[in-house]
Write a structure and sequence with these properties.
This protein is an alpha/beta fold and 284 residues long. Helices cover 19% and strands 30% of the residues. It is built from six helices and 16 strands. Strands 1-5-4-7-3-8 form a six-stranded mixed beta sheet, sandwiched between helices. Strands 9-16-11-14 form a four-stranded antiparallel beta sheet. α2 (95-101) packs across α3 (103-120) and α3 (103-120) crosses α5. The chain starts with a strand and ends with a strand. It binds zinc ion. Zinc ion is lined by residues 27, 142, 152, 154. Zinc ion (ZN) is lined by residues 27, 142, 152, 154.
Length: 284
Protein backbone atom coordinates (compact mmCIF):
# COMPACT_ATOMS: atom_id res chain seq x y z
CA UNK A 1 0.00 0.00 0.00
CA UNK A 2 1.27 3.43 -0.91
CA UNK A 3 2.23 5.78 1.88
CA UNK A 4 -0.23 8.64 2.47
CA UNK A 5 0.88 12.00 1.12
CA UNK A 6 -0.47 15.19 2.64
CA UNK A 7 -0.57 17.81 -0.15
CA UNK A 8 0.67 21.25 0.94
CA UNK A 9 1.61 22.97 -2.30
CA UNK A 10 4.58 25.29 -2.65
CA UNK A 11 4.78 27.96 -5.37
CA UNK A 12 8.54 27.39 -5.61
CA UNK A 13 9.15 25.13 -8.62
CA UNK A 14 9.79 25.16 -12.34
CA UNK A 15 9.44 22.81 -15.29
CA UNK A 16 11.88 19.93 -15.64
CA UNK A 17 12.25 20.91 -19.28
CA UNK A 18 11.58 17.39 -20.46
CA UNK A 19 14.16 15.75 -18.18
CA UNK A 20 13.02 12.53 -16.54
CA UNK A 21 14.42 12.35 -12.98
CA UNK A 22 17.17 9.80 -12.39
CA UNK A 23 18.48 10.90 -9.00
CA UNK A 24 16.77 10.57 -5.61
CA UNK A 25 18.22 13.14 -3.23
CA UNK A 26 17.86 13.19 0.56
CA UNK A 27 18.15 16.27 2.75
CA UNK A 28 17.76 17.28 6.38
CA UNK A 29 15.45 20.25 6.92
CA UNK A 30 17.67 21.88 9.61
CA UNK A 31 14.79 23.63 11.34
CA UNK A 32 11.31 22.27 10.73
CA UNK A 33 10.58 19.22 12.85
CA UNK A 34 7.19 18.37 11.32
CA UNK A 35 6.00 18.01 7.73
CA UNK A 36 3.38 20.68 8.48
CA UNK A 37 5.82 23.35 9.65
CA UNK A 38 8.06 22.50 6.70
CA UNK A 39 5.01 22.89 4.42
CA UNK A 40 4.30 26.34 5.87
CA UNK A 41 7.88 27.38 5.16
CA UNK A 42 7.76 26.12 1.56
CA UNK A 43 4.31 27.70 1.02
CA UNK A 44 5.86 31.15 1.47
CA UNK A 45 7.09 32.02 -2.01
CA UNK A 46 9.46 34.67 -0.70
CA UNK A 47 11.57 31.90 0.87
CA UNK A 48 12.45 30.72 -2.68
CA UNK A 49 12.95 27.14 -1.57
CA UNK A 50 11.06 23.84 -1.69
CA UNK A 51 11.39 20.09 -1.93
CA UNK A 52 9.16 17.40 -3.41
CA UNK A 53 8.33 15.77 -0.10
CA UNK A 54 9.05 15.75 3.61
CA UNK A 55 9.20 13.06 6.31
CA UNK A 56 8.85 13.36 10.08
CA UNK A 57 8.32 10.98 13.01
CA UNK A 58 4.62 10.31 12.32
CA UNK A 59 4.08 6.85 10.97
CA UNK A 60 3.11 6.26 7.34
CA UNK A 61 2.57 9.81 6.15
CA UNK A 62 4.64 12.21 4.05
CA UNK A 63 4.20 15.89 3.26
CA UNK A 64 4.14 16.61 -0.48
CA UNK A 65 4.95 20.15 -1.64
CA UNK A 66 5.96 19.97 -5.29
CA UNK A 67 4.60 17.24 -7.56
CA UNK A 68 7.25 14.92 -8.94
CA UNK A 69 6.63 16.20 -12.48
CA UNK A 70 8.14 19.58 -11.63
CA UNK A 71 11.58 20.59 -10.38
CA UNK A 72 11.67 21.66 -6.72
CA UNK A 73 14.15 24.28 -5.55
CA UNK A 74 16.47 22.49 -3.18
CA UNK A 75 19.78 21.43 -4.74
CA UNK A 76 20.93 24.30 -6.98
CA UNK A 77 22.20 22.91 -10.29
CA UNK A 78 20.62 19.47 -9.83
CA UNK A 79 16.93 20.30 -9.53
CA UNK A 80 15.77 19.12 -12.97
CA UNK A 81 17.16 15.58 -12.76
CA UNK A 82 16.30 15.00 -9.08
CA UNK A 83 13.36 14.16 -6.89
CA UNK A 84 14.01 15.38 -3.37
CA UNK A 85 12.90 14.70 0.18
CA UNK A 86 13.57 16.60 3.38
CA UNK A 87 13.88 14.60 6.56
CA UNK A 88 12.65 16.83 9.39
CA UNK A 89 15.92 16.38 11.25
CA UNK A 90 19.42 17.73 11.56
CA UNK A 91 22.77 16.88 9.99
CA UNK A 92 24.29 17.00 13.48
CA UNK A 93 22.39 13.89 14.64
CA UNK A 94 24.42 10.79 15.42
CA UNK A 95 23.78 7.40 13.88
CA UNK A 96 22.26 6.19 17.11
CA UNK A 97 19.94 9.23 17.29
CA UNK A 98 18.65 8.42 13.82
CA UNK A 99 18.26 4.71 14.47
CA UNK A 100 16.92 4.81 18.01
CA UNK A 101 14.88 8.03 18.12
CA UNK A 102 13.77 8.59 14.52
CA UNK A 103 13.19 5.14 13.13
CA UNK A 104 9.71 6.12 11.87
CA UNK A 105 11.23 9.00 9.94
CA UNK A 106 13.73 6.63 8.34
CA UNK A 107 10.92 4.23 7.47
CA UNK A 108 8.89 7.00 5.84
CA UNK A 109 11.91 8.22 3.88
CA UNK A 110 12.72 4.67 2.79
CA UNK A 111 9.17 4.13 1.57
CA UNK A 112 9.34 7.38 -0.37
CA UNK A 113 12.65 6.31 -1.95
CA UNK A 114 11.10 2.99 -2.96
CA UNK A 115 8.04 4.66 -4.50
CA UNK A 116 10.07 7.18 -6.49
CA UNK A 117 12.51 4.48 -7.59
CA UNK A 118 9.63 2.31 -8.79
CA UNK A 119 7.94 5.20 -10.56
CA UNK A 120 11.01 6.29 -12.52
CA UNK A 121 12.91 3.01 -12.73
CA UNK A 122 15.80 4.34 -10.65
CA UNK A 123 18.02 1.72 -8.95
CA UNK A 124 18.02 1.77 -5.14
CA UNK A 125 21.77 2.12 -4.71
CA UNK A 126 23.77 4.77 -2.86
CA UNK A 127 25.80 6.97 -5.20
CA UNK A 128 29.28 8.21 -4.31
CA UNK A 129 30.27 11.83 -4.94
CA UNK A 130 31.48 11.41 -8.49
CA UNK A 131 28.48 9.29 -9.48
CA UNK A 132 26.10 11.79 -7.86
CA UNK A 133 27.80 14.74 -9.56
CA UNK A 134 28.00 12.90 -12.87
CA UNK A 135 25.38 10.85 -14.65
CA UNK A 136 24.86 8.32 -11.84
CA UNK A 137 21.36 6.90 -11.41
CA UNK A 138 20.49 6.14 -7.81
CA UNK A 139 20.10 7.59 -4.33
CA UNK A 140 22.34 10.27 -2.82
CA UNK A 141 22.49 12.81 -0.05
CA UNK A 142 22.72 16.53 -0.70
CA UNK A 143 26.37 16.53 0.41
CA UNK A 144 27.25 14.14 -2.44
CA UNK A 145 26.35 16.83 -4.99
CA UNK A 146 29.23 19.04 -3.86
CA UNK A 147 29.49 22.70 -4.85
CA UNK A 148 27.15 22.24 -7.83
CA UNK A 149 24.47 21.25 -5.37
CA UNK A 150 25.08 24.37 -3.29
CA UNK A 151 27.88 22.99 -1.11
CA UNK A 152 25.64 21.64 1.65
CA UNK A 153 26.61 19.03 4.24
CA UNK A 154 23.28 17.27 4.78
CA UNK A 155 22.28 14.65 5.75
CA UNK A 156 25.40 14.66 8.00
CA UNK A 157 28.07 12.12 8.89
CA UNK A 158 25.81 10.21 11.30
CA UNK A 159 23.06 9.63 8.76
CA UNK A 160 22.54 5.84 8.38
CA UNK A 161 22.48 5.72 4.57
CA UNK A 162 23.17 1.96 4.60
CA UNK A 163 20.11 1.36 6.75
CA UNK A 164 17.96 3.65 4.63
CA UNK A 165 18.95 1.78 1.46
CA UNK A 166 18.25 -1.54 3.18
CA UNK A 167 14.79 -0.43 4.28
CA UNK A 168 14.05 1.09 0.86
CA UNK A 169 14.86 -2.26 -0.72
CA UNK A 170 12.34 -3.83 1.63
CA UNK A 171 14.83 -5.35 4.05
CA UNK A 172 13.75 -5.88 7.60
CA UNK A 173 14.14 -2.88 9.84
CA UNK A 174 17.06 -3.22 12.23
CA UNK A 175 16.01 -3.00 15.85
CA UNK A 176 19.45 -2.04 17.09
CA UNK A 177 22.60 -0.60 15.58
CA UNK A 178 24.70 -3.73 15.91
CA UNK A 179 27.81 -2.53 14.13
CA UNK A 180 27.96 0.61 16.21
CA UNK A 181 27.91 -1.53 19.32
CA UNK A 182 30.69 -3.72 17.99
CA UNK A 183 32.86 -0.79 17.07
CA UNK A 184 32.42 0.71 20.48
CA UNK A 185 33.07 -2.48 22.40
CA UNK A 186 36.65 -3.30 23.02
CA UNK A 187 37.55 -6.89 23.90
CA UNK A 188 40.39 -7.84 26.21
CA UNK A 189 41.91 -11.02 24.90
CA UNK A 190 42.10 -13.76 27.49
CA UNK A 191 44.64 -16.49 26.71
CA UNK A 192 44.69 -20.07 27.86
CA UNK A 193 48.02 -19.73 29.63
CA UNK A 194 47.36 -22.88 31.56
CA UNK A 195 47.45 -24.88 28.34
CA UNK A 196 48.33 -28.45 29.33
CA UNK A 197 49.97 -28.99 25.97
CA UNK A 198 53.33 -27.32 26.59
CA UNK A 199 54.24 -27.32 22.90
CA UNK A 200 51.42 -24.93 22.13
CA UNK A 201 51.74 -21.20 22.63
CA UNK A 202 49.01 -19.57 24.69
CA UNK A 203 46.09 -18.86 22.44
CA UNK A 204 42.61 -17.45 22.39
CA UNK A 205 39.73 -17.60 19.94
CA UNK A 206 37.43 -14.79 18.93
CA UNK A 207 34.07 -15.87 17.53
CA UNK A 208 32.98 -13.69 14.61
CA UNK A 209 29.21 -13.19 14.27
CA UNK A 210 27.68 -13.81 10.84
CA UNK A 211 27.13 -10.16 10.03
CA UNK A 212 30.79 -9.38 10.66
CA UNK A 213 32.20 -12.28 8.64
CA UNK A 214 31.23 -11.19 5.16
CA UNK A 215 34.59 -9.82 4.11
CA UNK A 216 33.72 -6.26 5.07
CA UNK A 217 35.29 -6.01 8.49
CA UNK A 218 38.67 -6.00 10.15
CA UNK A 219 39.85 -6.77 13.62
CA UNK A 220 42.11 -4.20 15.17
CA UNK A 221 44.60 -5.13 17.86
CA UNK A 222 46.15 -2.71 20.29
CA UNK A 223 48.67 -3.06 23.06
CA UNK A 224 50.24 -0.64 25.47
CA UNK A 225 53.61 -2.24 25.12
CA UNK A 226 55.53 -4.12 22.47
CA UNK A 227 53.91 -7.42 21.56
CA UNK A 228 54.32 -10.18 18.99
CA UNK A 229 51.64 -12.66 18.14
CA UNK A 230 50.17 -14.66 15.29
CA UNK A 231 46.65 -14.19 13.99
CA UNK A 232 45.06 -17.18 12.29
CA UNK A 233 42.10 -16.75 9.98
CA UNK A 234 40.74 -18.75 7.05
CA UNK A 235 43.14 -16.69 4.91
CA UNK A 236 46.15 -18.11 6.82
CA UNK A 237 48.61 -16.78 9.36
CA UNK A 238 49.54 -13.15 9.91
CA UNK A 239 52.52 -12.28 12.08
CA UNK A 240 51.69 -9.16 14.07
CA UNK A 241 54.31 -7.00 15.68
CA UNK A 242 52.99 -4.14 17.79
CA UNK A 243 55.23 -1.37 18.98
CA UNK A 244 54.58 0.16 22.37
CA UNK A 245 51.15 1.88 22.25
CA UNK A 246 50.78 0.39 18.78
CA UNK A 247 47.75 -0.85 16.86
CA UNK A 248 47.36 -2.96 13.74
CA UNK A 249 44.45 -4.38 11.78
CA UNK A 250 43.95 -7.80 10.24
CA UNK A 251 41.18 -8.30 7.70
CA UNK A 252 38.44 -10.78 8.51
CA UNK A 253 38.04 -12.82 5.32
CA UNK A 254 34.66 -13.63 3.86
CA UNK A 255 33.18 -16.60 5.69
CA UNK A 256 35.71 -16.57 8.55
CA UNK A 257 33.87 -17.34 11.78
CA UNK A 258 36.78 -17.72 14.18
CA UNK A 259 39.96 -15.71 14.56
CA UNK A 260 42.67 -17.32 16.68
CA UNK A 261 45.43 -15.34 18.32
CA UNK A 262 48.60 -17.14 19.46
CA UNK A 263 51.19 -15.47 21.60
CA UNK A 264 54.88 -15.93 21.15
CA UNK A 265 56.06 -17.42 24.37
CA UNK A 266 58.45 -15.02 26.03
CA UNK A 267 56.79 -11.65 25.75
CA UNK A 268 54.12 -12.17 28.35
CA UNK A 269 54.23 -10.47 31.66
CA UNK A 270 53.17 -12.40 34.71
CA UNK A 271 49.46 -11.98 34.88
CA UNK A 272 48.47 -14.23 32.01
CA UNK A 273 45.73 -15.08 31.14
CA UNK A 274 44.63 -11.46 31.32
CA UNK A 275 46.85 -10.15 28.57
CA UNK A 276 47.49 -6.53 27.77
CA UNK A 277 46.24 -7.04 24.20
CA UNK A 278 42.86 -5.63 23.22
CA UNK A 279 40.84 -6.04 20.04
CA UNK A 280 37.83 -4.46 18.40
CA UNK A 281 35.99 -5.15 15.16
CA UNK A 282 35.11 -2.39 12.73
CA UNK A 283 34.26 -1.87 9.11
CA UNK A 284 37.24 -2.00 6.73
ZN1 LIG B 1 19.87 19.88 1.49
Amino acid sequence: MAIKRKWMPSPCYHSRGGIKPYKIILHTAEGATTIESLGNFFANGSNQVSSQCGADDKKDILGEYVSRGNAAWTQAAYNEESVSLELCGFASWSRSTWLNQHSNMLDNAATWVREEANHYGIPIVALNNSQAQGGGRGVAQHVNLGSGGGGHVDCGGGFPMDELIKRAKGGSAAQEPELVLWEDRMMWLVFDAGNPDASEAPACCIAIPNELSRGKHKIRFACRRQADFRVLTTAGKTEVHLEQEGALSVEIPDGCRVVTVKLDSDQLAPGVPVSPISACISEK
